[in-house]
Specification:
Blueprint: H1 4-11, H2 17-31, E1 38-42, E2 59-64, H3 67-76, E3 81-83, E4 96-101, H4 112-121, E5 122-132, H5 144-156, H6 164-173, E6 177-185, H7 193-201, H8 211-222, E7 235-242
Parallel strand pairs: 1-2, 1-4, 2-3, 4-5
Antiparallel strand pairs: 5-7, 6-7
Length: about 240
């Protein structure tokens, strides 16, 4: 997993910055309960999205386990950030109206403990919002990149911890019912074939970490035209579940 303490200072600028954060916050906000007064953002990172959820009459708390990330989040949310793991939130049962988890579950070996803890801190009728299917976000629009990587991505899909079908089943077991969805663009984040090849070489792409798979996809990417031309921006998906 990425060292988020080491990445903190340049995390925002390398991941779409303010435009992507604004798009993400708008999408999350559309799914929040209109009467929700307390929102918990789990794995809030630098707080760049979290701070944009603030509204008059709404309290927003950020939780992360990276001290370096939280130092940046604290500048955006003074007095409203907590250091904790997502499997042990320092809040009482039923304490919040909504829990948001953006770009978290795909990082975990198993999403179930985190979903259970989010369910615990939600009040009855509260809403859990999470990104899903992150590995597919770059490939929703047709492109030569999507075609070149399709086989390996399909092979990996059943193992993705943020896969829609898996999360729906885990949520149902916790008494969480799907209620809505949304999506938002990763503005300016479209990658070129060369950028994808570099990411594969560094072992950052979960669906081709095996050496043989990495070699296969690197050859396929190297054969694509316009090696430095970015392909379509990713489209990230959110699902909302009601307790």
């Amino acid at each position: 997993m990425l060292d988020y303490d080491a990445e903190a200072l340049h995390y925002d600028t390398t991941r779409g910055g303010e435009p992507r954060a604004e798009a993400a916050a708008r999408a999350v906000d559309r799914l929040l309960p209109p009467d929700g007064r307390t929102v918990l953002d789990v794995a809030c990172g630098t707080g760049i999205v979290t701070a944009r959820l603030l509204r008059p009459g709404r309290t927003v708390l950020g939780v992360d386990r990276s001290p370096a990330m939280l130092r940046l989040a604290a500048r955006r949310l003074p007095g409203a950030v907590l250091r904790a793991d997502a499997t042990g939130l320092p809040l009482r049962t039923g304490a919040v109206d909504a829990v948001a988890m953006v770009w978290l579950l795909h990082l975990l070996p198993d999403a179930a403990p985190v979903l259970a803890e989010a369910r615990r801190v939600l009040r009855p009728g509260g809403v859990l919002i999470t990104t899903v299917d992150k590995d597919d976000a770059y490939f929703t629009a047709p492109s030569d990149l999507a075609d070149a990587t399709a086989v390996l991505r399909r092979r990996h899909a059943p193992r993705a911890t943020d896969g829609t079908d898996r999360l729906r089943a885990q949520a149902a077991a916790l008494g969480l019912d799907p209620v809505a969805g949304a999506e938002f663009p990763g503005l300016g984040q479209g990658r070129s074939p060369r950028a994808w090849r570099e990411a594969v070489t560094k072992g950052r792409i979960p669906w081709c970490r095996a050496a043989a798979d990495a070699a296969t996809v690197e050859r396929a990417l190297a054969a694509l035209p316009d090696q430095d031309a970015p392909r379509p921006d990713p489209r990230y998906r959110l699902l909302a579940f009601r307790a």
